[in-house]
């Protein structure tokens, strides 16, 4: 074959026209070829949008629920020979509540009882009264019930009067009351803990920050301290409910306010920074979903490359005829490259639209605020174009190397 004249021209308009003709000749195949890019780009936009939307909701929920709770832990003696001691002062609730920004505060712990007998009848230690397995005994100050936003389903909570006199009264968690068969307190039912009777004054239906109380018999801390002594196995804990934005400051002030003489005996644990948690969740989810989206794009690119390569083999006659009429190898390569790029671009546009639609639909169904950043949706068609361009490189080179005489003979 002799080289074609250097004056052979293939304008951009001709390239577009030839590419469109090639795509429209087999619309079904073009749609199926484009499907991989649609899925890849759609997954890319949807997962990033859903990640942003979900982490926004996580941060919001975390801010409102957890960012207003500070926990102060007592220190247990490291040496078993040292006598246990409660480092919280008797007026711990009042001391902390005087801090600006505190809404409620209270101390609780689990008394050191070995297999206590809990039931509506007297029982010896180690015996399960009334089949009340799993019921725990807790000591809690009146402020703890307020700090946990305890909701009373029956009766009342014990108060400062019961606390000051170390009265033998108790409040039941909803689960413990159900196990013990106590549903009303107007008849002053009694619960026995190791043969010691405690009058039930109320039943708690919910406690947000200390849910284990729902399966327990809750005694005033002075009553428990008098009957069972200071905690030994697990440290006493103070729960402080603060106003929004005050948690970090309260965490710094609480140990000193409680024990100005020995603040080192208490450790305040502020809530984690919600922005840090949200960023961490965002990073983890984005990394995982980006990997999935990349896999989808690779699958789409392989699909385009495979289909374009098959098209090159099927259109060898057409390629040979065009070469015989004066088309140069670069013209043939450009046509197939333009076709694959066009399919990738269309797939990117459709995939971006589907991805945004999925994010909006999920947000509406969940009652969330949809968040789709522009830097996610806008480059999506370009990602599709790049995918189509890369996928079409090899088939285009194969098409450019087709010899016209050999192609026409076949």
Short key terms for the protein model shown above:
disordered N terminus, 14 helices, 410 residues
Could you characterize what this model shows?
It is rod-shaped, with a radius of gyration of 36 Å. Helix 2 (about 25-65) packs parallel to helix 11 (about 330-365), helix 2 (about 25-65) packs antiparallel against helix 13 (about 380-400) and helix 9 packs parallel to helix 13 (about 380-400). It starts with 11 loop residues before the first helix and ends with a helix. Strands 1, 2, 3, 4, 5, 6, 7, 8, 9, 10 and 11 form an eleven-stranded mixed sheet that branches. About 55% of the residues lie in helices and about 15% in strands. It has helices at about 10-25, 25-65, 90-95, 140-145, 160-165, 175-180, 220-230, 245-260, 275-315, 315-325, 330-365, 375, 380-400, 405-410, and strands spanning about 70-75, 100-110, 120, 135-140, 150-155, 170-175, 190-195, 195-205, 215-220, 235-240, 265-270. It has about 400 residues and is of the alpha+beta class. Strand 7 and strand 8 (about 195-205) form a beta hairpin. The chain has 14 helices and eleven strands. Residues about 1-5 have low confidence and may be disordered.
Task: Summarize the SSE layout with pairings.
Blueprint: H1 12-25, H2 27-65, E1 69-74, H3 92-97, E2 102-109, E3 118-119, E4 136-140, H4 142-147, E5 151-155, H5 160-165, E6 169-173, H6 174-180, E7 190-193, E8 196-206, E9 216-220, H7 221-228, E10 237-242, H8 247-258, E11 266-269, H9 274-314, H10 316-324, H11 329-366, H12 374-377, H13 380-400, H14 404-409
Parallel strand pairs: 4-9, 6-8
Antiparallel strand pairs: 1-10, 1-11, 2-4, 2-10, 3-7, 5-8, 6-9, 7-8
């Amino acid at each position: 074959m002799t080289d074609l004249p250097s004056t052979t021209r293939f304008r951009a308009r001709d390239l577009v026209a030839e590419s469109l003709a090639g795509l429209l000749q087999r619309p079904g195949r073009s749609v199926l070829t484009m499907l991989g890019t649609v899925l890849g780009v759609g997954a890319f936009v949807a997962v990033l949008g859903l990640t942003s939307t979900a982490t926004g909701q996580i941060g919001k929920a975390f801010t409102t629920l957890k960012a207003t709770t500070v926990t102060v832990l007592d220190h247990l003696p490291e040496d078993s020979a040292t006598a246990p001691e409660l480092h919280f002062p008797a007026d711990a609730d009042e001391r902390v509540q005087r801090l600006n920004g505190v809404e409620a505060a209270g101390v609780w712990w689990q008394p050191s009882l070995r297999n206590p007998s809990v039931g509506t009848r007297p029982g010896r230690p180690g015996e399960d009264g009334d089949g009340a397995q799993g019921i725990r005994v807790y000591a809690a100050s009146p402020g703890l019930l307020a700090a946990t936003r305890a909701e009373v389903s029956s009766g009342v909570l014990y108060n400062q009067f019961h606390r000051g006199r170390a009265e033998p009264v108790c409040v039941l968690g909803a689960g413990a009351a159900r196990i013990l068969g106590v549903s009303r307190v107007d008849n002053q039912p009694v619960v026995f803990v190791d043969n010691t009777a405690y009058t039930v004054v109320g039943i708690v239906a919910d406690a947000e920050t200390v849910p284990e109380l729902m399966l327990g018999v809750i005694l005033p801390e002075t009553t428990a301290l008098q009957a069972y002594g200071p905690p030994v196995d697990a440290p006493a804990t103070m729960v402080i409910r603060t106003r929004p934005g005050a948690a970090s400051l309260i965490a710094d002030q609480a140990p000193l306010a409680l024990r100005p003489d020995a603040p080192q005996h208490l450790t305040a644990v502020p809530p984690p920074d919600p922005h840090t948690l949200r960023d961490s969740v965002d990073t983890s989810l984005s990394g995982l979903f980006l990997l999935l989206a990349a896999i989808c794009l690779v699958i789409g690119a392989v699909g385009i490359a495979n289909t374009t390569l098959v098209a090159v083999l099927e259109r060898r006659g057409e390629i040979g005829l065009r070469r015989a009429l004066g088309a140069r190898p670069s013209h043939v390569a450009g046509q197939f490259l333009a076709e694959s790029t066009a399919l990738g671009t269309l797939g990117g546009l459709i995939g971006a639209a589907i991805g945004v639609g999925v994010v909006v639909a999920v947000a509406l169904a969940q009652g969330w605020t949809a968040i789709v950043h522009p830097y996610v949706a806008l480059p999506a068609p370009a990602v599709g174009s790049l995918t189509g361009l890369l996928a079409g490189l090899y088939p285009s080179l194969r098409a450019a190397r087709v010899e016209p005489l050999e192609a026409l003979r076949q």
